[in-house]
């Protein structure tokens, strides 16, 4: 009988076909997550015209989906730490795809808002669990990059929504962009079959054979026997996963993560909902305003990959604090106008430093907490963040309704970026789980190493 440390095997693994497959599946899921979140902002100008809605009413409608996320993110995060991430990913994907599809058949604002709320339950739960599953199986030196690549799917989906809108609004109407969101329903049997379950859940449920099969794919040189013993890095556990977020001197960092998520998602969802309208207020046509939404997401993709590489080299907190501050500056300058090149550059920079930086913060949180509460940590941070996300569309609608100067509208979305930078500065890195993991592996190397095959 040999002792098998699954975390050590995964951390020291080399990127291979297993990781490529996992990346592809998770990218597909997050692409439609991003699509479903941005699709409402793409359709807002037409919905306002067809249903004769005020900006305040549209802001409220946009917040119903985010209100669903407030409940969905923590609930499905904690549920996944109990029943497994794969089951919860399939449940949440079904929820948000089905009800976003039904939005395209809504005949009035009340029905539309109800569907958005129900879709929001799934949207809130999907991303924390996909990120947690990726972190579970990523090589130690590639965690930021793998999570970042998948989270670029969010921005690809965000670009896809206005692109489809540009080609369908004039011929089919606003409904078509919501019908497209139902495509993932066809992929659910495939996803359930090929997505791996988290290593932590497999160990807890004594499914050694299934875990050994996954570990063999991760490192084909390893051979396992049925009587091999699985060992884990011991962490403090609680019957209530939420309590674990405040153990081992993590309380301050937990609160700071929540503040950062709240502020950044206020900016992200406010911009995703109102950027086309803000640019129309500044004198641009509808298609041009939708193009700014595309550039925002393109900036997020490029920013996510660059920031991930920098974070792997210099550390997450050192990079994210100045980037959030830079995002606030970019948004402020947008309000003062300029030639097209300057405006597009500022929009792209804003995308990199808001959506892109937020993607990396999620990778940061997934590594900060131990695997047994990883989904809970991401779910709670996302749930608190969605409260800020709810406020974003409402704030934008209110500001437009009182016809403030365009500069003040952009400044209002920039201020939360500065607050998020301060919160991240106050994170206490020395209490992170990944620090304990590194110390544990160093102790093993200094002692007699455990045999794993």
Structural overview:
- This protein is an all-alpha fold.
- Helices cover 76% and strands 1% of the residues.
- It has a single domain, classed as Growth Hormone, Chain: A, CATH 1.20.1250.20.
- The longest helix has 34 residues.
- It starts with a strand and ends in a 7-residue tail after the last helix.
Topology:
Layout: E1 3-5, H1 6-11, H2 17-50, H3 55-83, H4 85-103, H5 109-137, H6 143-168, H7 175-179, H8 188-194, H9 199-204, H10 208-218, E2 229-231, H11 241-244, H12 251-281, H13 286-314, H14 316-334, H15 340-368, H16 374-401, H17 406-425, H18 433-446
Parallel strand pairs: 1-2
Helix pairs in contact: 2-3, 2-4, 2-5, 2-6, 2-12, 3-4, 3-5, 3-16, 4-5, 5-15, 5-16, 6-13, 6-15, 12-13, 12-15, 12-16, 12-17, 13-14, 13-15, 14-15, 14-17, 15-16
Summing up helix and strand content along with how strands pair, one would put the structural category as mainly alpha
Query: What's the arrangement of strands in the largest beta sheet?
Result: 1-2
For the record, the count of structural domains works out to: 1
Write down the Rg: 22 Å
Low-confidence stretches: 448-453
Total E-strand runs: 2
CATH topology description = Growth Hormone, Chain: A
How would you spell out the order of helices and strands? Answer: EHHHHHHHHHHEHHHHHHHH
Residues in helix, %: over 70%
CATH class category name: Mainly Alpha
Strand content: under 5%
Instruction: Determine the mean pLDDT.
Output: 82
Question: What's the CATH superfamily, by name?
Answer: MFS general substrate transporter like domains
- What's the helix count? 18
């Amino acid at each position: 009988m040999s002792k098998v440390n699954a975390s050590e095997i995964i951390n020291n693994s080399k990127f291979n076909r297993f990781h490529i497959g996992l990346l592809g599946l998770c990218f597909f899921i997050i692409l439609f997550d991003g699509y479903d979140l941005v699709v409402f902002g793409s359709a807002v100008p037409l919905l306002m015209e067809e249903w004769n809605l005020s900006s305040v009413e549209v802001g409220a409608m946009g917040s119903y989906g985010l209100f669903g996320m407030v409940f969905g993110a923590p609930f499905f995060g904690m549920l996944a730490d109990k029943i497994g991430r794969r089951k919860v990913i399939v449940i949440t994907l079904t929820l948000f795809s089905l009800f976003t599809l039904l939005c395209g058949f809504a005949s009035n604002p009340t029905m539309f808002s109800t569907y958005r709320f129900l879709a929001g339950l799934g949207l809130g739960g999907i991303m924390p669990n996909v990120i947690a599953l990726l972190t579970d199986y990523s090589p130690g030196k590639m965690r930021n990059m793998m999570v970042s690549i998948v989270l670029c799917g969010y921005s690809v989906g965000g670009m896809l929504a206005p692109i489809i809108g540009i080609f369908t609004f004039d011929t089919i109407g606003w409904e078509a962009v919501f019908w497209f969101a139902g495509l993932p329903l066809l992929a659910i049997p495939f996803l359930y079959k090929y997505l791996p379950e988290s290593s932590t859940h497999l160990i807890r449920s004594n499914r050694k054979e299934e875990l050994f099969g996954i570990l063999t794919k991760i490192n084909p040189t390893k051979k396992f026997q049925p009587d091999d013993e699985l060992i884990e890095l011991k962490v403090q556990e609680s019957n209530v996963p939420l309590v674990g977020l405040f153990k081992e001197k993590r309380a301050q960092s937990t609160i700071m993560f929540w503040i950062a998520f709240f502020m950044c998602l206020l900016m992200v969802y406010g911009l995703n909902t109102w950027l086309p309208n803000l640019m129309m207020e500044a004198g641009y046509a509808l298609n041009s305003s939708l193009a700014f939404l595309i550039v925002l997401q393109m900036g997020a993709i490029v920013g996510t990959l660059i920031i991930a590489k920098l974070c792997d080299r210099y550390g997450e907190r050192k990079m994210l604090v100045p980037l959030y501050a830079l995002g606030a500056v970019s948004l402020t300058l947008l309000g003062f106008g300029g030639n097209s090149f300057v405006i597009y550059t500022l929009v792209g920079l804003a995308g990199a430093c808001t959506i892109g930086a937020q993607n990396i913060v999620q990778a940061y949180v997934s590594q900060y907490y131990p695997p047994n509460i990883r989904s809970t940590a991401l779910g709670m941070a996302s749930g608190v963040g969605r409260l800020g996300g709810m406020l974003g569309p409402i704030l934008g609608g209110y500001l437009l309704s009182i016809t403030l100067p365009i500069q003040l509208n952009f400044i209002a979305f920039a201020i939360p970026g500065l607050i998020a930078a301060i919160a991240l500065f106050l994170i206490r890195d020395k209490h992170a789980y990944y620090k304990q993991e590194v110390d544990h592996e160093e102790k093993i190397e200094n002692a007699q190493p455990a045999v794993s095959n």
